[in-house]
Amino acid sequence: MTRSIPRGRAIGAALAAVAVAATAVACSTESPSTEAGGTYSIWDPYPQFTDDSDWVRLLKGCGTSAGVTVERTGYDTTDLTNKALLAAQQGNSPDVLIIDNPVISTLAEAGTLTTTDETNLDVSAMEPNLLGAGQSGGKTYGVPIGANTLALYYNKDLLTEAGVDITTVTDWPSLTAALVKVKAAGKKGITFSAIGTEEGSFQFLPWFWGAGAQLTALDAPPAVVALTLWSDWLAAGHAPNSVINNTQTTSWQEFASGDYAFSENGTWQLANAAKLDFEYGIIPIPARAGGTAPAPTGGEFISIPVQRDTGRYATSKQLVTCLTSGDNLFTTDTTLSYIAPVAAVQEQQVAANAELKVWVDAVKAAKGRTGDDLGTRYPRISEPLWTAVQSALSGAQTPQEALSAAQRAAVSATS
Questions:
Q1: Contact present, 162 and 182 (Cβ < 8 Å)
Q2: Is residue 116 within 8 Å of residue 233, measured between CB atoms?
Q3: For residue 136, how many C-alpha atoms fall within 13 Å in the half-sphere facing its CB?
Q4: How far is 323 from 305, CA to CA, in rounded Å?
Q5: Nearest to 231 by CA among 116, 125, 102, 390
Q6: Cβ atoms within 10 A of the Cβ of 137, count?
Q7: Which pLDDT tens digits describe the chain residue by residue (415 residues)?
Q8: Cα separation of 50 and 323, whole Å?
Q9: If you compute the radius of gyration of the chain from its CA atoms, what whole number of angstroms results?
Q10: Global pTM?
Q11: Sign (positive/negative) of CA torsion 225, 231, 232, 238?
């Protein structure tokens, strides 16, 4: 692996970038066993799964298949990033790391992850758009375990009352026309999250990309058109002012009240959708001129961190391959409410649950936030973007003014 920055200094920079707390994290200083068999450590961002869960049983089973004992630790997502960087700094990384896909570029730049070429991990069956979230500088740093993304949930009963045929909602003009009908019927239109955090950028990106905008040109005409759409919806009363402070959770709660026709939200709400007091449906987020807008991918990658003892990589590869094999992948993605990164398993998911077809289509059109070789530049672009959204929706600036300021800030932060 080529590393142009000394590894210790790069990891230190990465730690600073994710704002690690001053309190040191205690890590074992023992070197992993290199004897035949031995113990292999796996860290994941699923602390909700206990030792008796199907997920942990799968991890242990993959260890048994590889002839080793798996020692698994689950961390909160942010905590996991910090611990992974600190462990790498101390030369004490886990053998397998399951990490949120936007973090891959940060860990790769810090020199803490191996490439799939180095470990001979086969990624040929993976969907290229999902694999892209784990690529940086032309190299691939892991295997996607699955993906979630965004679509539009809709209230069937409310739309029927308003005289809206959902099959006619195929682009921005037809969606806005539906919102006009909903308002005329005395109902509420659409809710989403525009909060001043990554959640706000995440929810804005389908409209941003769906207009043809690029993250390297935040103030270009397509970007302005996208932000104007949201701004106009608020001005017309089609979306509530609460979107400025809404998280994806509070936005869902608004939709669950039964008062809104549409909600932009993700696959992770499917269990909650089953509990709604009204009939619902799901359509992909439409692009400006029609078709499915590219939505950002969520989900994790399984990566193999750099080890002092490179002889461990062969067994680590066995563990990763086991976790991403067909039957195991189907079970894991069903448990996590993810869409599989492999076409054959996606077909299996749709066969088991036809409702997932719309999500498979959305994932096929999705793209990674750090894609287009943005890598670690993405967070420094995303913050000015969500700031612009906040500014425009609050009326502090016009969409053009807000995005021009965002572009200046992004250029300054990434140059």
A1: yes
A2: no
A3: 27
A4: 16
A5: 390
A6: 13
A7: 333 333 444 444 444 444 332 222 223 323 333 345 799 999 999 999 999 999 999 999 999 999 999 999 999 887 899 999 999 999 999 999 999 998 999 899 999 999 999 999 999 999 999 999 999 888 999 999 999 999 999 999 999 999 999 999 999 999 999 999 999 999 999 999 999 999 999 999 999 999 999 999 999 999 999 999 999 999 999 999 999 999 999 999 999 999 999 999 999 999 899 999 999 999 999 999 999 999 999 999 999 999 999 999 999 999 999 999 888 999 989 888 899 999 999 999 999 999 899 999 999 999 999 988 898 899 999 999 999 999 999 999 999 999 999 999 999 999 8
A8: 18
A9: 22
A10: 0.85
A11: positive
In DSSP terms, 262 is beta-bridged to 154, 190
Edge-to-edge order in the sheet of strand 96-100 = 69-74, 39-44, 96-100, 300-303, 143-144
Phi, psi of 173 (to 5 degrees): -60, -40
Residue 97 contacts residue 289 (beta carbons within 8 Å):
no
> Measured between alpha carbons, how far is residue 81 from residues 88, 98, 246, 411 in Å?
11, 10, 25, 26
Tell me, what amino acid is at 368? G
| Three-class secondary structure assignment of the chain | CCCCCCHHHHHHHHHHHCCCCCCCCCCCCCCCCCCCCCEEEEEECCCCCCCCCHHHHHHHHHHHHHCCEEEEEECCHHHHHHHHHHHHHCCCCCCEEEEEHHHHHHHHHCCCECCHHHHCCCCCCECHHHHHHHEECCEECCEECCEECEEEEEEHHHHHHHCCCHHHCCCHHHHHHHHHHHHHCCCEEEECCCCCCHHHHHHHHHHHHHCCCCCCCCCCHHHHHHHHHHHHHHHHCCCCHHHHCCCHHHHHHHHHCCCEEEEEEEHHHHHHHCCCCCCEEEECCECCCCCECCCECECEEEECECCCCHHHHHHHHHHHHHHCCHHHHHHHHHHHCCECCEHHHHHHHHHHCHHHHHHHHHHHHCECCCCCCCHHHHHHHHHHHHHHHHHHHCCCCCHHHHHHHHHHHHHHHHC
As a whole number of angstroms, the longest Cα–Cα distance in the chain is: 72
Cβ contacts of 241 within 8 Å, gap of 6 or more: 234, 393
**Residue 172's closest CA among 134, 212, 143, 141?**
212
d(Cα 250, Cα 254) in Å, to the nearest integer? 6
Structure tokens at 161: 């009352």
